[in-house]
Amino acid sequence: MTKKTWSGRFSKSTDKLIERFTESITFDCRLIEHDIRGSIAHAQMLGSCGIISQADSDSIVDGLNEILADIRTHGVEVDESVEDVHTYIEKLLFDKIGEIAGKLHTARSRNDQVCLDIRLFLKHEIAAISGALSKFQAVIIDKAEEHVESIMPGLTHLQHAQPITLGHHLMAWFWMLERDKDRFADCLKRINVSPIGTGALAGTTFPIDRDYVAKELGFASVSENSIDSVADRDFASEFLAAAAILMVHLSRFAEEIVLWNTPEFGFVELDDSVTTGSSIMPQKKNPDVAELVRGKSGRVIGNLITLLTIQKGLPMAYNRDLQEDKEPLFDTVDTVRMSLDAFALMLSTAKFNAERMRKAAAEGFLTATDLADHLVRQGVPFRTAHEQVGKLVSWCLENQKDLLNLTIDEIRQFAPKAKEDVISQLTIEASVAARSSYGGTAPSEVRRQIQKARSVLEGKVQTF
Ligand code: ARG
Q1: Fewer CB atoms near the end CB (10 Å): N or C, the chain?
Q2: Residue of the nearest CA to atom 4 in ligand 1?
Q3: Annotated catalytic, 124?
């Protein structure tokens, strides 16, 4: 059993059950590389400020670098009695360099240390998530470009509304993901503040240089208040909120894929490599990736609620409750990264059925608004035009007619101001092409949008 770093004032050893209940090494060992990096920077600062000798600082740094190399080759051996990742590293260092290892913890506490580790971890993970988001966005752009002219029914209330193009529809997801990426970038600003050197809660009596450590670890600034520094996890909550919003986006997108993949819609066929079968029904090919992304959004939303709830009743400053912040973060990072990669693969290999979508767009009076707009251009107030077209649609339904092949006389029974040329304006292609307002569904406009999206993705254009 390992001797506790804090055992001095205790006359009994910790109960085994309590040891298991209070340990975090089994999960916070995931922070090990960040912890070592932080300790190296701290030890260098202690040496450079003359708080410990340069020779001690050097042997601590060398020892930590060796530990880092050992871990990279042999992995981490978890021992519950060492309590957490911070005490674990200290123990390994002691085994390597002896008593000098005890100088590393000068002018710091595990309270600021753990906060530092989480911030370093999130900085690293945000970069990875942003990269995965960009890759997914590139897949969306390519698919959208392929389907700039593919017409499909645009829905509201899951009812046929107006014809749109698949390219346009897919690009909607691009911009949602772009805002997600921006949310992570924004929350990174508040993560990118160094808490180290604030001690247990009140600061330290040693002449430390917090800027030195911050610079060494790539932080933009240092925190202003030592109590705030160790007490708050708002930066982690923000990260989880950004992740939850992203997962809600992915979940909605996944829901569309599930719907489109049904025989009723038949808009998309998912590749064999990203689908699974049924153990009983031989004919089945299920969209499990989409379903799991939809399902996994629940865990990430739950993780956000978990972290907020952990914090809500905490008095200042650090409380052990905060140890519970890590698992929701780890689970979120894993879930988000896997979901993004799996979804991107599913979309890149998906085959959209343009013919089927085109056929569906011909049903359901999708060009009714175009007829109303035509009447408005003849001077009819929009409300009157709406009423006239509504009556015409009702007549069509009673007489099994379709807006797409009415004669001008049939139209004029209800809309006397209609001009001959309206017939050509009521085709779904004309309807789509006419919606060329900025951000509209016209292929010309979607092409412009795609070009802009590419520039955004390449970092040439700022969106926010
Ligand atoms: N394992 C702890 C955590 O994750 C580290 C900080 C412990 N601090 C303390 N005073 N017990 O929060």
Answers
A1: C
A2: 323
A3: no
